Amino acid sequence: MGLRTKFNLMLAAVALVGLALLAAVLTPILDGQARDEVVQRSQIMMEAAAGVRKYTAEQVAPLLEPRMANTFHPQAVSAFAAGKTFDVLHAKYPDYAYREPALNPTNPMDRATDWEADIIEGFRSHPQLAETVVERDTPTGRSLVLARPLVATAECLTCHSTPAAAPKSMIAIYGPDHGFGWQPNEIVAAQVVSVPMAVAFAQADQARLVFLACYAGVFALLFALLNLLLNAMVLTPIDRMAKTAEAVSLGKLETPEYVRAGADQIAKLSVALNRLRRSLQEALRMLSEP
User: Fold this and answer.
1) Domain that holds residue 36
2) Is pTM beyond 0.85 here?
């Protein structure tokens, strides 16, 4: 195995180790940034929902409340308004979702699924918990879920304490069997935002590939440059000195000396080789004299 081959194998090993280390360092950083981006998107959705709820409670509900005795208007319910608002987003981006599931809702459509019920029960077990983030596998890919608890307030109890206290128009639509018995300050539901993680992580994968490709490109350029320098500064001088030494060893004393300018190791080797050559010539001359 030649010196060039050994040198290139060593460079290839260094390149592979460096590539593996770079990938190991980049992966948690880029994946962490991707997850943070998804969390930020979910927080923006959550704050938008909070804004819709606040506007509905303060601006819409007071206008519709006098009419609730005869006709129940779900538009006066902040949860309904927030859900309908995000239905527009969901229609365009099906992987994005907003719900306000409850353990005991008036509308059966708002009943919590098993995993949503687990989140609500988690809030009930830890009342000090203001927010939770979990990840779920869905048919369309992995999704990040941001949830916040919903507490029964005085406004909620006007409709959800007992059937007798609720508007008759609401009872006429949903019946008296569900959505009642809520207690003051009880965690009864949760705001749940679901955001797909695929896009953010695909961007992270693309960024990782770009970094690794740039590393590979720089190393390939360095590889070519080092090979040129190795050939010009080491291999060619050594080959010429080897040929000179081989010619002298075969008795071709008239072979020209190889002179390497400079003060590096190759130049010192050429000086030593030429000195050895002249010493050999002198020894042979002395042996040939009578």
Assistant:
1) 27-196
2) no
